[in-house]
């Protein structure tokens, strides 16, 4: 009986909850589709036009291409444990989808869209990426390297990795904005209380 009451209580809460479906459908979904599609299209182009290990200048002094198959996580982590990587990526993507469904803060939704698109695109790409140089499956196509003299970065990434980093950057920005708003609200409240006490 208690269990049944709890289920009914949750049903009522879910019906009353503001999921922001319109915002998710008309703003978030198009961004999500564009980001996933652009990542997958660039991976397909690289796989069809380049040989494994082939390099090319994309924007000299800024970014270059090198076609590789990464069996690990972002920036080559856990490369020898691709089944663990796929399991972790699947769990993370599933959790991000759940967060996306229930999150209703518009600023946080934009950050989450970037992170979810990167995670989902890389997960999809692992299902069809060519074998690596050792004929191992389950990798993801990486092809971008920063070509900036003062940036000593040698890791190779793809657009999905970039989307995740953009999402993290947007999250940091949202934290700063919300902290400033919190301080402003607290200051206004304190000022109002001081004026009332006069």
Alpha-carbon distance between the termini?
56 Å
Oligomer: single chain
Overall radius of gyration: 22 Å
User: Which structural class matches the secondary elements?
Assistant: mainly alpha
What is the arithmetic mean of pLDDT? 87
Shape field = extended
- Count of distinct strands: 3
Strand content: 5-15%
List keywords for this structure.
198 residues, mainly alpha, 3-stranded antiparallel beta sheet, cell membrane, Lipoprotein signal peptidase, membrane, aspartyl protease, protease
Characterise the protein shown here.
Helix content is 63%, strand content 10%. The protein is mainly α and 198 residues long. The protein has one domain. Strand 1 and strand 2 form a beta hairpin. Helix 3 runs antiparallel to helix 4 and helix 4 runs antiparallel to helix 5. The longest helix is centred in the C-terminal third of the chain and has 38 residues. The chain is extended and about 75 Å long. The mean pLDDT is 87.
Question: Which helices and strands appear, and what pairs or packs with what?
Answer:
Elements (H helix, E strand, L loop, with lengths): L1 H15 L4 H29 L5 E5 L3 E8 L11 H21 L3 H21 L13 E7 L12 H38 L2
Helix pairs in contact: 2-4, 3-4, 4-5
